[in-house]
Amino acid sequence: MSVLRLIGRATLLHVKQLSRSQFEIATALFVPLVQATLAVYLFRAGTEPHRLLEAAVGAGMMAVWSSVLFGSGGAIQNQRWQGTLEMLMLAPRPPALLVFPITLATAVTGTYAMIATLLWGGLVYRIPLDVADPLAFAVSVPAAILGLGMFGLLLASTFVLLPNANAINNTLEYPIWLVSGMLVPITVLPGWTGPVGAVLPTTWASRAVRESVTGSGPVWPSLGVCLALSLGCLVAGALVMSYVERRARANATLALA
């Protein structure tokens, strides 16, 4: 219970901290609406205008992924700039347990993106918000956000070893949501993208949310695979984070590495 209390309070703290950043607020407010608008017009111009609700949901998942990617990529660097990284590492808790709430907070702020894209599509473009399974949708969205937060810990622990993490963020954003089928069906992509997408939690998260909206398949197996892969990312991220901490302590380069 103490671990859950720590994660809950730390996540709330970092959400409040993100809400004080003008850049984060502006990005969270407007990027999902732009992505939803582009998705709606793309689907309207295509041969399947009846799938506008899927476009709105896909745009919401894209915004959640962007929030997790950039938030996780800068998780360690931001703490270093604020002068709090040393205090985090000195805390009597595993470093992964202290960084995970940061990545989870970025995923939680992405919840607005999902709500905003659906409301924007319904109010502005008159998209019928007819969710096939409201209960599954209400469960799959928070579970997908939790899974992406776990995935974010692996990204944060890996990016801390790379000097140009921001450039890598820009490189990964679009390819990941593309091979994950957030907006474009995986079936229309080249065959080699299938195995790549199958090992990503983002693929199964977007599939679970989409299936709950359209009723095109069973939600719970996709959600189970998403959480299983995310737990694997959480364990891998914790191991990498511990290695990075030990190496930084040994070399006395915590504030520089």
From TrEMBL:
InterPro entries with a match to the protein in the record: ABC2_TM (IPR013525), Nod_factor_ABC_transporter (IPR051784)
Q: Where would you find the membrane-spanning parts of this chain?
A: 21-43, 55-76, 97-123, 135-162, 174-200, 220-244
Taxonomic superkingdom:
Bacteria
- GO (cellular component) term, any one: membrane
This protein's UniProt keywords: Membrane, Transmembrane, Transmembrane helix
Q: Give the membrane topology.
A: Multi-pass membrane protein
The entry lists its GO molecular-function terms as:
ABC-type transporter activity
Q: Name one Pfam family in it.
A: ABC2_membrane
Where does the ABC-2 type transporter transmembrane domain start and stop, copy by copy? 15-211
Q: What residue ranges carry the coiled-coil annotation?
A: none
Tell me the compartments it is located in: Membrane
Keyword Flavoprotein present in the record's keywords: the answer is no
- Listed name of the protein: ABC-2 type transport system permease protein
